[in-house]
Amino acid sequence: MKLENDPLAAFWMPFTANRAFKATPRQLKSAKDMHYTSDDGRQILDGTAGLWAVNAGHCRAPIVEAIQKTASELDYAPPFQLGHPLAFELASRLATLMPEGLDRIFFTNSGSESVDTALKIALAYQRAIGQGTRTRLIGRERGYNGVGFGGISVGGIVNNRRQFGTLLTGVDHLPHTHNMEHNAFTMGRPEWGGHLADNLEAIVALHGAETIAAVIVEPMAGSTGVLVPPVGYLEKLREITRKHGIVLIFDEVITAFGRVGGATASGTLGVTPDIITMAKGLTNAAVPMGAVAVSRHIHDGVVEGGPDGIELFHGYTYSGHPLAAAAGLATLDLYKSEGIFEHATSLHSYWQDAVHSLKGKRNIIDIRNMGIVAGIELAPHSAGVGKRGMQLFHKCFDNGLLVRATGDIIALSPPLILEKAHIDEMIGRIAELVETID
Ligand code: PMP
Q: For the whole model, what pTM was predicted?
């Protein structure tokens, strides 16, 4: 087959519209610690840890070496009736980082797969314990739970759903928790909004608890613009789900591994769900990998109670892949040996003050923060939603700073090895550049 004479044509890029990309193709060539190097040789301060993922900083030697060593020793092991020591070791290590009781680990290759796996486990569990009528799933508006059919069904993003037909049936959505009127410019967790969890009671009243299998929410929604959980909200969800026998899943693909404090947001906030989904920071994004931590009673329920002798017929060719497991172990070692979560936590208040210093700058209508995350919301341009966000993204990149624009919200989530000087640089640059866009 003859290709058109365009080296950028064949790669159908995820999410990005190829046409827009080709207008000003920006490519990354290498990375080290807090920085990327662009293909034109410029240093770009990484304000997004890649995509909420490179928490220990880029191309860290111990992770690189672990991957190289394993690649030369055991490239792959099939998952049927066989295992390999690295996957077992990583699962055990990961279990020790999870909240009490969530000590059974299922490996996947991405956040999307973790979400679909978690939903399947919840359904299999309900069935295994004789609650087979519980098939409904509850997600949340403005939830991002990946792009599998399960994830987009429970997720609450119109663009992710509207091309793809009926999706899963029997799905309801809780309202999201962001409210400009009550919560604009709140530092940290808003006081207003805990009561929004009561909407779950309304859904239960509508359908009957005996029809509902699971609720899935992100403790802090990242991809839809940093929605910080109101005080008491997650606690209330926990209370209601427990009361009605509903499995509670926290999608921690972004929040796990130090992003909001400790190893999980659940642990940091003191609310323990039944299942936690993870990915990204698990391997510092060096090799794709996700994981699902499952509470012992759910695991045992599925394994012991499967009605037809099946434990959980689900998995991936690459579940627990040796290279990913090696990268995961080296990453967890690094988080621990360098005290990366503690280091980041020691910067929380400096970070909060810095990001909120942007209040009053042109077009900024809200600022939200949690852990080492910030969402800076710009008023939409009359020419369309997302235009201002994209303009600022381009300006920042061209001036040596990578940010993420999600609509008109600029999301920041730098590697957790950052220092105060990086925060100053990031915020200083945004302060200056936000004044220069239309
Ligand atoms: N869940 C959440 C909360 C996410 O933020 C993401 C990705 N940003 C996903 C799931 C999907 O992860 P992946 O892109 O690795 O499939």
A: 0.97
